[in-house]
């Protein structure tokens, strides 16, 4: 991590993990960056996930997050498709 | 309101769940719902569903739902059990029990919790299809 960015850990769930081919990873986002900025970085590294973005759900920790939500250093973000319990 | 939430890879033992929970003298309605895996999906034979959960978030989101349910209806207790892992056709994947003074709120709350669970609780399922026989 350099002074111009912060590291955000992302975990993929369900078939997003299969599309990415990996369980997750660390992504660099500028300080003050948002969930939307993070999704840009994820789409760039994992192009197969990019088409899923309109339906993707995002959580910071164990709470749902919105695209404009500002991320904090050390945030753990989860990215997953619509849920299907029951 | 009493509440319990369990995610488990073990089969849902409905008789044991029911036997292990008493109801108060003021409870006029006990609604139990069991969701089971069907053996067909869109006319295609299905062997099982494999459930995956994001456990910490699933528990948190269930907790939020049960708090909201308590705010909407006067409930005595809600218990939720949801399976993870491989659930074969015919087996239970989810079990919900709602206890209240009257049936209307118990039935309404049970249906609402199920609907909201399918919207916000991070659990996913992958179908295991029956192999297609070669001609």
| CATH architecture name of chain A | Roll
Largest sheet of chain A: 5 strands, mixed
Shape of chain A: globular
What is the helix content of chain A? Answer: 10-25%
**What's the pLDDT, averaged over the residues of chain B?**
96
Structural class of chain B: alpha+beta
Q: Classify the oligomer.
A: heterodimer
CATH superfamily of chain A: Beta-grasp domain
- In which order are the strands of the major sheet of chain A placed? 2-1-5-3-4
Average pLDDT figure of chain A: 95
* Separation, N- and C-terminal Cα atoms of chain B: 58 Å
Residue ranges of chain A: pLDDT <50 for 5 or more in a row? none
Cα-to-Cα separation, first versus last residue of chain A:
41 Å
What is the top-level CATH class of chain B? Alpha Beta
CATH class of chain A: Alpha Beta
Counted beta strands of chain B: 8
Structural account:
The complex is a heterodimer of chains A (86) and B (135). Chain A has 86 residues and is an alpha+beta fold. In chain A, 20% of the residues lie in helices and 28% in strands. A 5-stranded mixed sheet of chain A has the order 2-1-5-3-4. In chain A, a hairpin with a 2-residue loop joins β3 (57-60) and β4. The longest helix of chain A is centred in the middle third of the chain and has 11 residues, at 35-45. Chain A is globular, with a radius of gyration of 12 Å. With 135 residues, chain B is of the alpha+beta class. Chain B has a single domain (2-15, 26-129), classed as Molybdopterin biosynthesis MoaE subunit (Aldehyde Oxidoreductase, domain 3). Chain B contains 3 helices and 8 strands, in the order βαβββαβββαβ. In chain B, strands 1-5-7-2 form a 4-stranded mixed sheet, with helices on one face. In chain B, α2 runs antiparallel to α3 (103-120). The longest helix of chain B is centred in the middle third of the chain and has 18 residues, at 55-72. Classes of the chains: A alpha+beta (86), B alpha+beta (135). At the A-B interface, β4 of A face β4, α2, α3 and β8 of B.
């Amino acid at each position: 991590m350099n002074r111009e960015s912060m590291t955000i850990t992302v975990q993929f769930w369900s078939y997003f993990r299969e599309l990415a081919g990996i369980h997750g990873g660390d992504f660099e986002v500028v300080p003050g960056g948002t969930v939307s900025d993070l999704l840009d970085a994820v789409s760039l590294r994992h192009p197969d996930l990019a088409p899923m973005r309109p339906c993707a759900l995002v959580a910071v920790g164990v709470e749902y997050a919105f695209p404009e939500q500002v991320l904090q250093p050390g945030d753990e973000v989860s990215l997953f498709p619509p849920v299907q319990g029951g | 309101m009493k509440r319990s939430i369990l995610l488990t890879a073990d089969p849902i033992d409905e008789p044991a769940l029911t036997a292990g929970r008493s109801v108060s003298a003021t409870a006029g309605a006990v609604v139990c719902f069991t969701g089971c895996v069907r053996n067909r999906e869109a006319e295609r034979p299905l062997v099982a569903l494999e459930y995956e959960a994001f456990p910490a978030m699933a528990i948190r989101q269930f907790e939020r739902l049960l708090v909201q349910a308590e705010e909407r209806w006067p409930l005595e207790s809600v218990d939720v059990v949801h399976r993870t892992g491989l659930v074969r056709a015919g087996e239970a994947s989810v079990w919900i029990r709602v206890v209240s003074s009257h049936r209307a709120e118990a039935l309404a709350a049970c249906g609402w919790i199920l609907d909201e669970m399918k919207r916000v609780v991070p659990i996913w399922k992958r179908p295991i299809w029956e192999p297609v026989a070669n001609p």
